[in-house]
Amino acid sequence: MNGELRYVYAVTAPLPAPLPDGVRGVSGAVPYAVHHAGLQAVVSRVPEADFAEEPLRAHLEDLAWLEETARAHQAVVDALTALTCPLPLRLATVYRDEEGVRRALEDGGQDFRATLDRLDGRVEWGVKVYARPATEPAAAAGSAPASGREFLRRRRQEVTSRENALAEAEELGRTLHAALTAQAEDVRVYPAQNPQLSRVPGQNLLNAAYLVPRERSEEFVGRVERLGAHDPTVRVELTGPWAPYSFAAADAPGREGAHDSAVS
């Protein structure tokens, strides 16, 4: 296998300006546009030896390769987001040739256009809220418990203090989510992250994505900062603006002779 395939990053309406010269995609390739019926797919050439179905399946088990490919994919989508509202496709969406890409644009044209119209001028913001890890209180007067009863009393105080702090953090998370939902056009709430897997300290109380008109992003960010940035019981993590991955339900149909894979 020494040929080239076409790796597709996103579908967009015709771009108002070309991508910056320095943008590089997967395998260091320069992305370019394949046009069809008023749509365009942003693609780059990738080696068949890496992206044909069998080698790709093996590569997807290689975390280092997967991370490098995901970063390159995201770099192209980020560059597009600075110019327009792209409809990102899943990682490693690959077609045999440009004709296959055009067939996908033809087959999915109605869905692509409807989704692009719905998302036009909008970006995605991610918000995570974590309860700050509880700190062990210092022993009274720096001394050990005088008795078993004193030990149990201190332990009850510690448990009550942690429970109260968690309840306060959960209430702030609910308040923040309600306020942000009122400012967003659409919301996706995801399961809380497992701290053992994410390696992020603190209990994850909110893990959500918000679809926000681009011109209202400053107001949205300000609301996040006012409600959560300085509260001692929580840590608020704001990411974005992103292409609206969470709200781009359309996917590329008609992939005859092509394959794609996704990671979350």
From TrEMBL:
Residues 136-155 are annotated as: Disordered. InterPro entries: GvpL/GvpF. Residues 136-149 have a biased composition (Low complexity). It comes from the Bacteria. The keyword RNA-binding does not apply. It is found in: Gas vesicle. Keywords: Gas vesicle. Belongs to the gas vesicle GvpF/GvpL family. This is GvpL/GvpF family gas vesicle protein. It comes from Streptomyces spirodelae. The lineage of its organism: Bacteria, Bacillati, Actinomycetota, Actinomycetes, Kitasatosporales.
